[in-house]
Amino acid sequence: MEIDKAIRESDDRWLKTKYNKAIYVIQRALALYSIEEVAFSFNGGKDSTVLLHLLRAGYFLHKGGQNCANGGPSDFPIRTIYFESSSAFPEINSFTYDAAANYGLQMDIISTDFKSGLEALLKANPIRAIFLGVRIGDPTAVGQEQFSPSSVGWPPFMRVNPILDWSYRDVWAFLLACKVQYCSLYDQGYTSIGSIHDTVPNALLSVSNSLSSEEKFRPAYLLSDGRLERAGRVNKFSSGSGHSPSFSNGLISADLHKNSLLTASAIAVGDEILLGIVEDQLGPLLCKKLHSIGWSMSQTVVVRNDVDSVAEEVERKSSTNDLVFIYGGIGPLHSDLTLAGVAKAFGVRLAPDEEFEEYLRSVIGDYCPSDRNEMALLPEGITELLHHEKLAVPLIKCKNIIVLTATNLMELETQWDCLIELTRSSDILAVMEPYVSRLLKTDLSDVATAKPLSKLCLEFPDLHIKATCDKKI
Ligand SMILES: Cc1cc2nc3c(=O)[nH]c(=O)nc-3n(C[C@H](O)[C@H](O)[C@H](O)COP(=O)(O)O)c2cc1C
Ligand SMILES: Nc1ncnc2c1ncn2[C@@H]1O[C@H](COP(=O)(O)OP(=O)(O)OP(=O)(O)O)[C@@H](O)[C@H]1O
Ligand SMILES: [Mg+2]
């Protein structure tokens, strides 16, 4: 079936593992319970949309690949329950009903609260297990496992949570890899959807535009830190006026919003680093530079100098970061494959760029190790050259990837300064308020400092305390 095929053909190994584990849970549940004894709790949210497709694939595989029309199961006999509410977003309602029609779901629409609705449903039907799209990190996931009996006081049934261990990233990697439809609200900056009374777009996805008074938001899949997916949930207990919502996640304050808006990653390409022959010095300097302009650095990684390793990492990082810096593996050697990896990540070919070739000629003359100057091949259609008078060769920008040609700290300093200057005339790298860092040293043990530090964190939610083995920052 098409979902199973899409995942098998994807080169996201992490997603494949998560998919296989979820399918395993579904298949074990279908082996344990008859089809009349299971139900699927579907509400049109992103997690339950993932589960819908996993269940369809799991059921199809459970049936041994039979019962298929046009590459998918022709029927989906698992009873689907939707707790309808007048405070649900109309977009959620219409997506749920559209999905029901598109996938032939047999819907039970329940208009009472969860508990009494389930009591009535279980009285009238032999249901013993219910599939839910609950994930670790959801407030309701606490204490749950893949198979968890319902709580005391609830009617007796098994809660089956096939995507319990999926992260926010996994959810979006799945929905995008399978190219399935999801509720339109997620393209408008909503990252987790409750009711119309408690959910707003996630401020971390806001795009400020001075020309328009209307606030715009980037799509949910661009949220780089999945821990903040519930930042768009308005605190039910807030006593505010409603004009400046406070958020249910205590970690978020207005100041933190400002500073964690933009996230970058750095990819160092080089077998020599992985072999331990050379140390990566550029990554730490980039972290310092980005930190100094208020950006949050989510990761620095080192990858092998081969096209697939580079492509995989670029694809992963570009979808979860605002900007990605990549260096190493750029040059005339046959082993310099970084640009080929960037091209592959975006599904374009490497094509000769005359303008770039001209620059290279001015630097290296007519010397060329092969017929064509391979260094002048750039990812086609997605490349922008960033010119600066201090740079003999322009920097290369492919979508949100900045390719740095620097090979040492001095060159990186120069390229960074040029980027910052270029930012004044374009929007490559927004310069924000810097983070303020303080280094505190103490002889006290971790055990002695743990309690006062936790207290500080609670009192000042936008304070980040990081401890290292011999110092506390
Ligand atoms: C099918 C189904 C089964 C549930 N089972 C339980 C349960 O066993 N114990 C429980 O405390 N809550 C149960 N709940 C309620 C949820 O944990 C949670 O309160 C509900 O999804 C509302 O979440 P929200 O406040 O984020 O909208 C169940 C909900 C559904 C839809
Ligand atoms: N109104 C509802 N009707 C049926 N099932 C529901 C309802 N609300 C929640 N559920 C079940 O609980 C699960 C967890 O809900 P939750 O809101 O965390 O996820 P979601 O709605 O799928 O995605 P999102 O986090 O983006 O809102 C859902 O995936 C679904 O299985
Ligand atoms: Mg939801």
Automatic annotation (TrEMBL):
Annotated catalysed reactions: FMN + ATP + H(+) = FAD + diphosphate
Enzyme class: transferase
Metal-binding is among the record's keywords: no
Database matches in InterPro entries: MoaB/Mog-like_dom_sf, MoaB/Mog_dom, PAPS_reduct_dom, Rossmann-like_a/b/a_fold
GO molecular function: ATP binding; FMN adenylyltransferase activity
EC code(s) of this entry: 2.7.7.2
Domain (MoaB/Mog): residue spans on this chain: 265-426
Residue ranges that the Swiss-Prot or TrEMBL entry lists as coiled coil: none
Gene Ontology biological process terms, A to Z: FAD biosynthetic process
Pathway membership, UniProt: Cofactor biosynthesis; FAD biosynthesis; FAD from FMN: step 1/1
Domain of life where this protein originates: Eukaryota
UniProt entry keywords in alphabetical sequence: ATP-binding, FAD, Flavoprotein, FMN, Nucleotide-binding, Nucleotidyltransferase, Transferase
CDD domains noted in UniProt: FAD_synthase (cd23948)
Protein name: FAD synthase
Origin organism lineage: Eukaryota, Viridiplantae, Streptophyta, Embryophyta, Tracheophyta
